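User: Can you help me understand a structure? I only have the sequence.
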Amino acid sequence: MPECLVNGVRLHYEEHGQRQEGRAPILCIHGMSSSGLVWGPSVAKVAALGRTIVYDRRGCTRSERPEPYTTSIAQQADDAAALLRALDASPAVVIGRSYGGEVALALALRHPETVRALVLLEAGLVNLVPEAKAWADGVLARVLAAAEREPSDAAKALVHEILGEGGWEKLPAPLQSMFTGNSPAVVAEMRGGFLEAEPEELAKLGIPVLLVASAESPPAFRQVVAAMGAAIPNARTALVPGGHLIDLAEPAVLELVATAIQGTSTQAPNR
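Assistant: Let's start by predicting it. Here is the structure, written out as tokens:
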């Protein structure tokens, strides 16, 4: 099982696809409560474009979870930067979903030399939209309250908030088990706080950025995507069907990645 010692923590990672001269690698960063396993067969579709790295963030599933466990977006972004450097995979086209999208954005802001392009699947930069921030604060309070009552319920409570009534029950049993096992990571990540970045910081991003929102997710995500799209000069947006667990292999994502790994600035069109 491939592991890499990063900032004092062992991270599990996998490599798919082939290294190709002149093409940037692709790094996939999963969201809260999950792991690299959550991407499923979609990894193969991305890896058909080139070298693709998926990993479990610190505290999640197959990677090390220090005890006592605390973390932050900044720490997670620094881990991603160190992993890219250790694997000689920088700069990369970075895809992040939800909390993983916040990590990907923080990576680009903190370590710009490691990122060639960004694909953010409903990254929750909620400080840009007061209504979204109020909603996210409510989610945080309810999930932490559930964890106080029963620590292993943190992930289930989070899924209920994000996917809605019946969302947990629709998940396959292996996903439910993985999410439940990551409940301590959910608590640590929520206590570590959301990413905050001002429009002035986002305006300095000089790389291609694709912002993807889902038509069936809570409205806060679409509000945030719109605000981020207005702030980032090179951003394009795409609205896709389905809920928050946006497919890694959405056509808009594959289109952006296919051009960005070659170092061109062509991006997926607005949809």
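Now, to help you interpret it: The longest helix spans residues 130-149. The longest strand covers residues 9-16. Let me know which part you'd like to focus on.
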